[in-house]
Design brief:
Layout: H1 3-29, E1 43-50, E2 53-59, H2 61-68, E3 78-85, E4 88-97, E5 114-119, H3 132-138, H4 150-155
Antiparallel strand pairs: 1-2, 2-3, 3-4, 4-5
């Protein structure tokens, strides 16, 4: 390749890479969900196995109580999922119901006031994941307050 052409393309390639990084980072950073250090003090209410993936889900007693009454989960509900791949912790995925959050989302898949975030095994935000995928998928669960495991919450034995 012509060295002068390579030199002139380099800034464009670098800018494209930076734009991709900024877009991915912004997607993850737009979420108000922070890593909840004490999530294991909530109730472990469901284990889902899918091939080599095991998902462990935790939620508060208040969320379980609301589900048992067929009510929407209360604002402040935090659901944490531990995602294990081949027996190793791969990531955390959290969803939190934040008052008014749905009003801030223009043109995206509707998930009410639910915000999502993914975290690496060390609890840091995973900027390499696109959390808009969470919104797209969970939008199909409107009748379950956008929670795939709503029925499992409802069936959880109260403590």
């Amino acid at each position: 390749m012509n060295p002068s052409l390579t030199h002139s393309l380099l800034p464009a390639v670098m800018l494209s890479g930076m734009a991709l990084f900024i877009t991915t980072t912004a997607t993850a950073a737009q979420s108000p969900v922070a890593f909840k250090q004490d999530y294991q003090q909530d109730i472990h209410y469901f284990t889902k196995h899918r091939g080599g993936i095991t998902e462990e889900l935790y939620a508060s007693q208040a969320a379980i109580n609301a589900a048992k009454q067929d009510k929407p989960l209360p604002v402040g509900t935090y659901i944490m999922m531990e995602d294990f791949r081949s027996g190793e912790l791969y990531r955390y995925v959290a969803m939190e119901k934040v008052a008014g959050y749905g009003d801030t989302r223009n043109g995206s898949s509707n998930t009410g006031d639910w915000a999502f975030q993914t975290f690496s095994p060390d609890g840091e935000i995973n900027h390499n994941e696109d959390i808009s995928r969470c919104h797209s998928c969970h939008s199909s669960q409107e009748s379950n307050d956008y929670v795939f495991s709503y029925q499992q919450l409802k069936a959880t034995k109260s403590e």
